[in-house]
Amino acid sequence: MAVAPVIEERAGCGRSARVAARLMRRLVRPLIERLPWTPHTLRFAPLLDLGAVLLVPPRGTKVTKVQGLGCAAEWVRGPGVSMDSRQAILYFHGGGFVACGLRTHRRMIARISQAAGMPVLSVAYRMQPRVPIQTTIDDCVDAYRLLLTTRDPEDIVVAGDSAGGYLAFMAPLHALRAGLPRPAGIATLSPFADLDIDPKIAHANAAIDPYIPAKRMWDMVHTCFPGADPTDPWLSPVHADLGGLPPVLIQAGAIEVILADAELMAERLGAAGVPCTLQIWEGQAHVFQVFADISREGLVAIKEIGAFARRATAREAQAA
């Protein structure tokens, strides 16, 4: 039975976030508009993660490498969080399927861990164009399978931002297809969910997004999903059979072009009978939570993610 998604418009945008958005529009967006998406240039994209070594996680954070996967992964525990917690979050980083990794997202993930009071398994899935997208999805499903060896599915929340938000939807869908149980919840930050870029180009935010030029997203799709049908339900979340998914939280910035995907995904989830809350944050850019050091709204949003994870994994709530 269809359910209406809950749309929450979060008002308020601090001066620092507004200044950061203006700077990104003047400095970062022009660079992205001109940067060629070629095999040669994409060879250097993973180096962005190495450059993030200066993004030190909050004091008291504990990081432990994880073995047994075909890709790198680590446990991240925010200050005061114990590995004895039966609940856990499985997190997939963003980066357009070609960049970022464990280091770029460790600081934000540590904050999410602290807000939720549970450890986070952060996965550095193999990226395009070095491997096909199915290998990436398989890496994420394998990480979920590994987590199921130590925790019950009702104690696991799957999360991710941007491209990782895409994987936070696709991994549970493919896991269900493989006969694995569904997780307790899914939390996504500015998720990429629709392989068709034209609706994003037509969206009002295409003209005001601080650093994502909508038209350049076709380059990402052609590189990372070569020859794919944009309506393929096993590659496009908005076209998938979503009925088996658990409750979902989606956070998106009010001025980002990916808001088009967030809105459509919330609509499709509701039509499939999946409870979904879409939070639209005034004046915020793509994955603004990663800029929580200069945006108090990012800190508030991270607390909301933690609260969602606790609610989703509360046995009493599930029993009710």
Automatic annotation (TrEMBL):
Domain named Alpha/beta hydrolase fold-3 is located at: 89-289
What's the name of the protein?
Acetyl esterase/lipase
For this protein, what is any one GO molecular function term?
A: triacylglycerol lipase activity
What InterPro entries is this protein classified in?
Answer: AB_hydrolase_3, AB_hydrolase_fold, GDXG_lipolytic_enzyme, Lipase_GDXG_put_SER_AS
Family to which the UniProt record says this protein belongs? Belongs to the 'GDXG' lipolytic enzyme family.
- Say which species the protein is native to: Actinomadura meyerae
Transmembrane ranges?
Answer: none
UniProt keyword list: Hydrolase
Q: Which domain of life is it from?
A: Bacteria
Signal peptide boundaries: none
Q: Give the PROSITE patterns listed for this entry.
A: LIPASE_GDXG_SER
Q: What residues make up the catalytic site?
A: S162
